[in-house]
Design brief:
mainly beta; 1 helix; 5-stranded antiparallel β-sheet; single chain
Length: 115
């Protein structure tokens, strides 16, 4: 995430993600618009994502890049070359477990009213 994001940019992010700070996003690349945002942890954990029971006010669609690096428990075995995708409704509590290696994923957030 670029440093020194404007108050307007942070407000847009918070409308999609929740009560997140610029510091929470220090390891995250983000691309935002009024109703959509893409967030990719690029060099470390999203500090908001590792908070127990956090929620998002928007719908989230997450694509994990490896079967072992996801924050959802599943019994699904993925064939080689396939990725796990997850859809989360607004206000669904969840958390990413902090491990020795950070979870690699891309998350698309869509404003609940726009969706």
């Amino acid at each position: 995430m670029k440093k020194n994001i404007s108050k307007n940019e942070l407000a847009k992010i918070q409308e999609l993600v929740g009560n997140v700070s610029e510091e929470d996003l220090k390891y995250v690349d983000a691309f935002i618009s009024d109703q959509l945002g893409i967030f990719i942890p690029s060099v470390g954990f999203c500090q908001y994502a590792i908070r127990a029971g956090h929620t998002h006010p928007s719908y989230s669609f997450v694509v994990f890049f490896t079967e072992k690096q996801n924050f959802l428990e599943t019994a699904i075995t993925l064939p080689e070359g396939h990725y796990l995708g997850a859809c989360l409704s607004p206000d669904l509590p969840h958390q990413e477990e902090e491990t020795d290696t950070f979870t690699r994923y891309a998350a698309l957030f869509i404003d609940r009213n726009f969706f």
